[in-house]
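Is flavin-adenine dinucleotide placement plausible here? Inputs below.
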Amino acid sequence: MQNTNVLISGAGIAGIALAYWLRRHGFSVTVVERAETIREGGYKVDIRGAALEVVERMGLLDEIRSMRTDVRAGSVVNAAGRRVASMDGDTFGGRVHGDAEILRGDLHRMLFEHTKDDVTYVFDDSIVSLNEGREGVDVTFASGKADVYDLVVGADGLHSATRALAFGPEERFLRDLGYYISIFSTPNHLNLDREELTYIGPGRTALAYSTAKDAGAKAMFLFSSDPVSYDHRDRAQQERILRDAYAGEGWEVPRMLDGVADAADFYFDSLSQVHMERWSKGRVVLLGDAAYCASPASGQGTSLALVGAYVLAGELAAAGGDHEAGFEGYERELRTFVDANQKLGPSNIKRMVMRGKGQVRFSMAMLSLISRMPGKEKMLAKVVAPIHQAANAISLKSY
Ligand SMILES: Cc1cc2nc3c(=O)[nH]c(=O)nc-3n(C[C@H](O)[C@H](O)[C@H](O)COP(=O)(O)OP(=O)(O)OC[C@H]3O[C@@H](n4cnc5c(N)ncnc54)[C@H](O)[C@@H]3O)c2cc1C
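Reply from A.M.:
I modeled the complex. Tokens:
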């Protein structure tokens, strides 16, 4: 095997899952993460289709099922908090065929625990320069350290620094969908018990839920907006943008926003996608959101990260570590799957955030009607069928 010394930038779901598979195929792996520790925040995420097969091959499916959110009901509420449409949790979340829903943070921690003993993790550091030579890539880090690696993988998310260094500024690759998202932990003011509530205002949606695994609750905000310029590392500025966007909004929104400054796991970003013609350049390759972010609206970011990690490691191993052949195989096996899942983002978001008051009223009335109809599960299964088709749009090879 050649090229066995691999550096991964980013200890997110994609980076850690790749570290797992590379180790299993005999590579030696270092992961450098900018944060001081793994970032456990985030909403609940679904593992569907091919990604279920990947976690089963990792031997993690039972553990994931034991950590399931067990959200039992979902309702749409009006500004006064009255539930106008209610359904069981799986129907509300569009889950079928054993799909697993787990808190992103729980999955993240689980993957870390399964890799921490045989992967070198370096926290609180990041790559500042990459120089490729014939035998490897010279890397320097913000800490001042320097080293040479056979291959470098950028799994450092939507605003990937590795992508910027190797491929150019993010403006070339990011497509803004016209929305922003924020997620953070909040006290369970509403005493929710494994229930999710969704409030829909014009251009502004807000959600709150509690899970079996979480003593508190989580809040999520999704709003439409023209592009806003902000500093990705300035949390106070992002909190201000969020508060301004929801000023005067009803339901529990003011109380949820009151707690934002106390949340340890505040997350804010634009809903954007990443589109690139190639995911590799020489000895540098991108994975997960850095390469092909489909946006949280696709509901498939985690599954794309897990499947991509499996395929990238598998193709590299199958090519005996030859990066040109391995990266070629990664593109060939994964492209169609990525394209199918990226298509979900723009269409799903239109069902999640309504344009004006008229559309809000119409949607509430329809949801209320549907929720009382016999056979509503079948009807809603048709609505989410494209997600399941996309989630299964790859046949996984055995490596
Ligand atoms: C805190 C957090 C909460 C999230 N919550 C949700 C959610 O609720 N719903 C949803 O759909 N998606 C969420 N996401 C995005 C979701 O995790 C990804 O779409 C998906 O899991 C693919 O993951 P990824 O590993 O490619 O990217 P990410 O999850 O973004 O992970 C990238 C990792 O790289 C690190 N990093 C960034 N820049 C550098 C750098 N320069 N050097 C080193 N490390 C760097 C980040 O700290 C992070 O740990 C969240 C992401 C984060 C980081």
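Short version: The longest strand covers residues 174-186.
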